[in-house]
Design goal:
heterodimer, A: 2 domains, seven-stranded mixed β-sheet, four-stranded antiparallel β-sheet, 21% strand, B: 240 residues, Rossmann fold, six-stranded mixed β-sheet, 10 strands, globular
Chain lengths: 429, 240
Amino acid sequence: MLIIENILLALSALRANKTRAFLTMLGIIIGISSVITIMTIGQAMTNALNDEMGGLGATNITISVSQRRTKTERSDSGFMFRDGPRRNDMKDEDKITLDMVEALKEEFKDQIDGVMLKQSIGNGEVKHLKEYANVSVAGQNDISMKKEDLTMLAGRQFTAIDQKEGRKVCVVSDYMVGNMFDEDNEGALGQQITVVIDNKFYHYTIVGVYQYNKNDPYNSDDHYDTSTTLYLPLETAVRQAHSKNRFTEITAIGSTGEDIDALMKEIKSFLNSKYYRNNENYEISCMSLASMIESLTEMMNTMSLAISFIAGISLLVGGIGVMNIMLVSVTERTKEIGTRKALGATNSSIRLQFIVESITLCVAGGIIGVAFGVLLGNIISKIMQFSAAAPIGGIVIAVLFSMAIGVFFGYYPANKAAKMNPIDALRYE
Amino acid sequence: MDESAGRVIIDAKNIIKRFYVGQPNELEILHGIDITVREGEFVAVVGASGSGKSTLMNIIGALDKPTSGEYVLDGVDVMQAKDKELSGIRNRKIGFVFQTYNLIARTNALKNVELPMLYAGMGRNERVRRAKELLDMVGMGDRMNHRSDELSGGQKQRVAIARAMANDPAIILADEPTGALDSKTGRLIMDIFHDLNKKQGKTIVLITHSPELASETGRILTISDGMITGERKGSGNADN
């Protein structure tokens, strides 16, 4: 009850001195709005990062063969030697074999949904009658195809038998079909095409046409140079490349809900201890988008926090301004305080009145600061091409913090008012 | 001394007030004052400035405690009261009317009258109802939404009287209530006090330096040099 009355009272006191109240609030407004601006931009960046990377498969764990870190050795004479980067070429026996993939699948069958295998053959040219089109040819296993999430316009994707027997079939883009078969997707099915890679000729039968995403920023727009992917069953590609089914990089898909970070470490130590313990030059390293996002987000949060802390110093200055003006206000209203005491106000109700006034001042400044900060943050985010964001947690903390400033810096003046001797206060002119 | 057998409201005995106690400049302002005021009385305390009149008023008004003596106000022992209890006594037992009105700035008449009730913890509806009633009583019912700086001196003082009456106090303590007003307006204010005293039986203590005003009251106490030096009956009427 008294709180509401006090808030109304505080508002009318602030209204009575609008300019003074605004100037006092300015410190709080600047402090809060700079913190919120930074937080808004940070939030927008994090959102953008998550959106972009989440779409790429945050649960994917990329397992790759990488060079061992150089070792530090101590010579007899006590000098430290650091081996330079090894330049041994990767040999087939250093690569990941299908056996390893199978062992991996078996070991982690409850934690991973599958392993994406991809064998890139290279860029080439498709020939059919007199038409030409650029393609990049890649063999992919069923899991990998599924993850590509192709929109099929005609025909089908690869069957298990296609994959197993390494049939000479392919899935091509509608873009390529458009160039070579007059946009007749259905008509392209069953057609045999010739692909030229490094002056070698390969023949495949089209079994499916997928929709090529023109808006994908990674695809080039140039009409003649546009190269679309031509998918082959993995086995087909392996045979063609004579690569004996060895991979330098595979991708395991973590099951949803798994701790990707922990899973990553387990996979790494599993493969390293089992297959690479005796390999002098190479080892397995793992990387996941989840962990990358996590560390990037963490870094960004730390940065936001650090900058916010500096901005927080301006809040401190603003708080001192509030205390100063509250002291002036208490002195100015000495007679009012005396009157209130004569009318029966207790010390604590006088204290409450002035603390509420100080809180009202700070929270009003805080709210203006939040509004201004969100606005400014979003304008900057917009310029930086991020979508809008509002750091809810930050806003709540900012308002609570400005309230805390109100209490902290309002307490001393309020206490001074509360402790006034009513006789002296009444006599004050 | 008054023969009317009303209940004793102010019962002060041997009130001594010293300032700077224990210091070389220790100063005794009141040298053992006895005052008794009964319910329904209209008493004037008259004295020149420096006579100790203000100090006495502060003590009667529970704004200050005497150094020694006994003071019982409407059955409450003020000597034993702590700060918070003194606030309660001022809130419920005493209605102050000041020479300078002391309305709260930037606040309308209604809110001013509500204030003592707010501190007494009265509910909003009851507060507003009573405040309106009191403002009507002093003839300010049509100006209750005017802010204090929009009122004339006489109007301010009428609002102040309504405010003093808010918690139906045991006494109204009026300190030079007409001191800042012209004689015509002052007359109006005095009439309100007479009305309150006669029609509602309110106990009123009027502090003044004017013998004319004092003689309108029922009993006049003269104070000089910190002692009660005289006591006489007044006419008790405005038109003497």
